[in-house]
Amino acid sequence: MTYDYDLIVIGAGSGGVRAARMSAGHGAKVAVIEGDRPGGTCVIRGCVPKKLLMYGSSFSADAADAAGYGWQVDIGGHDWSHLITAKNAELDRLEGIYRNLLKNAGAELIEGWARLTGPNSVSVGDRSLTAAHILIATGGTPQIPDVLGLADCAITSNEALDLPAKPRRIVIYGAGYIALEFASIFNGFGVDTHLVYRGDLPLRGFDPDVRAEIATALAGRGITLHAGTTINSVAPGDDGHAVTLSNGSVIEADQIMAATGRVPNTAGLDLPALGIDLGPRGEIPVDARSATSVPSIFAVGDVTDRINLTPVAIAEGHAFADTMFGGRPRTVSHDNVPSAVFTQPPIGSVGPGEDEARDMFGEITVFTSKFNAMKNSLSGRSEKTFMKLIVETASDRVVAAHMVGPDAGEIMQGIGVAVVAGATKADFDATIGIHPTAAEEFVTMRTPRD
Length: 450
Description:
This protein is of the alpha/beta class and 450 residues long. The protein contains 13 helices and 21 strands.
């Protein structure tokens, strides 16, 4: 058959744009369909604007620490509207870059919402388009729990990035990385911040020591933690919203944020009608080649609910393009993917947590270190840096590393290379540390934890 395109990509986020660019570079005729702004979750509604706000909020702690070094710092307040305007200008710039990346690669950008009408056909408004291959890269979307009154009052991470005014008091419902990052952001701007979550510790699925350390650190920074609780209802209060918790207590807040997770953005694509049965969270099941059960349809990124990180989506999109159009078949390994949580202080991890590592490798040896960062020796901040190495005992291979403390994400990128390369604890021990740094602790831990 003759098709309009070799490839139609649905979604102009990081994974979709990479797949489109590389495919066009391999000579394919490509169209990208996007109903919102090119750039996707990461650039427009996630990683980038969130980290810009994180940078802005961190100055309050830096100013407080400066007094210990002799600086006389007077904080005269914060202009929230200026920050949001500056953030939006940067997002406009990045959106323009994404548009130009597609244009310069020779891929056509079609603006509108797509719906699959067949294994090789897509409708966009009044248009009907066909392609030999279709790649779905529609990402994820926030969800709001079914709690009385919550949907009427709550914002999600999307709206939290564009609030016209800074709240005075906020309740954040959730304990994943999005909830913790926004709690750190609002707290850093002086907002009375409450974090409500069902478990005994935040960040379910992370290493247990990391979970305990970040809970201590967040509380130390002034965030009020409501562990082991849920929100029963939200109603109008005397001054904003009255949030009733499962323990009977009531929190008055002028803003409520639902951050209990995201779900794959598959609504409206009509995939079940094509024979693609979605997973329990609405995710698209795919194999190692990102192929669905329909031979002409593929999916990458958060919509597959494999590892929901932007660099993973980019890698999956690139591998798809090389395999389908570049004559270089390959897959992406989802093992040992480094990650960071941009809380204050931040978290960096690569490899499994301790419990998972024990299940995977049997006997393991664990090394930990907790210390007062040099900066805190004069600033007076009592917050500790925590580091952990997990070693497979039989092979001496370092299978995981975890950190809570300043620059954790930057440090973990380098440690991730070592873990992926299969470095042993002896290799770490033989490496000379850079002194004085926190990172050198990863090559000086010698005594296993009991």
